[in-house]
Amino acid sequence: MKGDHRVIDALNELLAMELAAMDQYFVHSRMYADWGLNQLYERINHEVEDEKGHAAVLIERILFLEGTPDMTQRTGFKVGTDVKSMLESDLQLEYTVRAGLQKTIQLCEQLQDYQTRTALMPLLEDTEIDHTHWLEQQLKLIDRVGMENYQQSKM
Fold it and tell me: Where is the chain membrane-spanning (predicted)?
């Protein structure tokens, strides 16, 4: 089914964000493992799989709309250097993804592409409720208990 090029372009923009998130979470998870922060490793490694699933949804939809997935771009990729900067860069990327999803969902509504909109809604829910909320909680915990106590609790 030939899709609107504006939707395909928007889906490729989202794909660049999801691939960046997947790669960033992958690197961060391995850094946490190297530092012995096993709870953070487990959680962030799980996020890698979530982002891979999001990318799969986007790729499948792009292909269905007879577009070509662009696997070369990464939007927002930034590796942190310590726990707090890693969590902050992950949160910033999730904010970027959320904004991109909202913009693309709005475009789909304008163009009456309700199937693509429906495919994107679970990604938005996962981004807002699971990923973003958890990262915000972790940064608040660091502010409340301090970095040393936070890191100790994640070993």
Answer: none
Check whether 136 is labelled as a binding-site residue. no
Is residue 155 situated within a structural domain? Answer: no
Domains: count for the chain:
1
In one-letter notation, the amino acid at residue 60 is E
Residue 64 lies in a domain: yes
The amino acid that residue 135 corresponds to is: L
- Is 133 assigned to a binding site? no
Q: Is 51 annotated as a binding residue?
A: yes
Give the Cβ contact number of residue 38 at 10 Å.
Answer: 12
Domain that holds residue 101: 5-150
Q: In terms of pTM, does the model score above 0.90?
A: yes
**Domain CATH code at residue 134:** 1.20.1260.10
The H helix count followed by the E strand count for the chain is: 6, 0
